[in-house]
């Protein structure tokens, strides 16, 4: 029913879910359950689903993507397509095949690492998603199905190395420096293995790395998780891409019209997401510094009108009937 943001010293400010639309609530759902529901829905809608398959490479001819090569076991098969969609998340495993090699490029060192696990015996407030700020990062805790809670947190890579890359130690020594997190996680134990990923950057990526290839979701832009709109943007951008492609099918079948399709997609993408990405970028500057985060929490705590306006700035008007969190 609400998301509550906690400063390191325990000051808090709440954003009710109903602010996004009258009477709305969010649903705490694990990613695996959500993915399974989406997969079954796709099958029932007539989508041909290939499981245990790997999109090994793009079919790239005359500077244009013409489909993908799929590997299933020891067999491979080429699938031609008028438009190929990279929905592989931040890894951009399709789009990055087109990234030009850089001579004498130094290995990039990521400055942030994200961890995730399901926990038992947390003290998260009933009906709340809790966000904790601490030095150089933030984390989120919310209940999901099965009587467990989902904990995700972002920390500085230097802190991860300092504590031997042990997520339990990082949780204790970094995340639980937030007084509220220290309370909610005091008796928590993991019920799943820890997952981790390094983070390169936030914000926009390339919408069309080549003719015939569009990106959606995190492959197109990675928004800060504390906004609670990562999955929402992924689903919305997929819908935008599908609508644009449907309108352009006749031109595409004539082996033309991709640039017009891209112009349409880029314009609609900017209209829906540009403001959200800009607002989240501004909030990020405060999120990673405890004193700024505390000042922001105190400031926005003085006015529900300000909080509501800021919260709604992370959503597009047409999408405020839903709130999905990448937590």
Write the layout of secondary structure elements.
Blueprint: E1 2-6, E2 12-16, H1 31-44, E3 54-61, E4 64-72, E5 75-80, E6 84-86, E7 112-120, E8 128-134, E9 137-143, E10 149-156, H2 157-162, H3 167-173, H4 179-184, E11 189-190, E12 195-199, E13 203-204, E14 213-215, E15 221-222, H5 230-253, H6 258-287, H7 290-300, H8 304-312
Parallel strand pairs: 1-8, 6-14
Antiparallel strand pairs: 1-2, 3-4, 4-5, 7-10, 7-11, 7-12, 8-9, 9-10, 13-15
Helix pairs in contact: 5-6
Please describe what this structure looks like.
With 327 residues, this protein is α+β, with helices and mostly antiparallel strands. It is built from eight helices and 15 strands. It has helices at 31-44, 157-162, 167-173, 179-184, 230-253, 258-287, 290-300, 304-312, and strands at residues 2-6, 12-16, 54-61, 64-72, 75-80, 84-86, 112-120, 128-134, 137-143, 149-156, 189-190, 195-199, 203-204, 213-215, 221-222. The strands form four sheets. Strands 1, 2, 7, 8, 9, 10, 11 and 12 form an eight-stranded mixed beta sheet that branches. Strands 3-4-5 form a three-stranded antiparallel beta sheet, with no helix packed on it. A hairpin with a 5-residue loop joins strand 9 and strand 10 (149-156). Helix 5 (230-253) runs antiparallel to helix 6 (258-287). The longest helix has 30 residues, at 258-287. Residues 319-327 have low confidence and may be disordered.
């Amino acid at each position: 029913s609400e998301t509550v943001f906690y400063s390191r010293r325990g000051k808090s400010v709440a954003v009710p879910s109903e602010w996004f639309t009258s009477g709305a609530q969010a649903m705490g759902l694990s990613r695996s359950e959500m993915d399974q529901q989406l997969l079954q829905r796709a099958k029932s809608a007539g989508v041909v689903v290939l499981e245990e398959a790997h999109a090994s490479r793009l079919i790239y001819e005359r500077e244009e993507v013409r489909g993908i090569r799929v590997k299933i076991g020891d067999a491979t098969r080429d699938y031609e397509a008028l438009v190929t969609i990279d929905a592989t998340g931040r890894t951009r495993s399709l789009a990055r095949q087109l990234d030009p090699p850089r001579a004498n490029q130094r290995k990039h060192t990521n400055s942030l690492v994200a961890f995730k696990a399901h926990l038992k015996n947390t003290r998260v407030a009933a009906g709340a998603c809790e966000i904790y700020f601490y030095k150089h990062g933030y984390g989120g805790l919310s209940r999901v199905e099965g009587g467990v809670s989902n904990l995700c947190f972002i920390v500085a890579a230097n802190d991860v190395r300092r504590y031997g890359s042990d997520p339990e130690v990082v949780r204790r020594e970094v995340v639980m420096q937030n007084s509220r997190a220290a309370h909610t996680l005091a008796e928590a134990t993991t019920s799943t293995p820890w997952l981790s990923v390094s983070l390169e950057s936030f914000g926009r990526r390339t919408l069309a790395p080549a003719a015939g290839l569009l990106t959606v979701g995190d492959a197109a832009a990675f928004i800060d998780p504390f906004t609670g709109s990562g999955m929402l943007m992924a689903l919305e951008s997929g819908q935008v891409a599908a609508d644009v492609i449907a309108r352009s099918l006749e031109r595409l079948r004539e082996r033309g019209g991709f640039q017009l399709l891209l112009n349409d997609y880029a314009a609609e993408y900017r209209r829906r997401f540009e403001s959200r990405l800009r607002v989240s970028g501004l909030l990020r500057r405060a999120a990673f510094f405890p004193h700024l985060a505390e000042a922001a929490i105190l400031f926005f705590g003085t006015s529900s009108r300000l909080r509501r306006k800021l919260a709604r700035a992370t959503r597009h008007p047409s999408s405020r009937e839903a709130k999905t969190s990448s937590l």
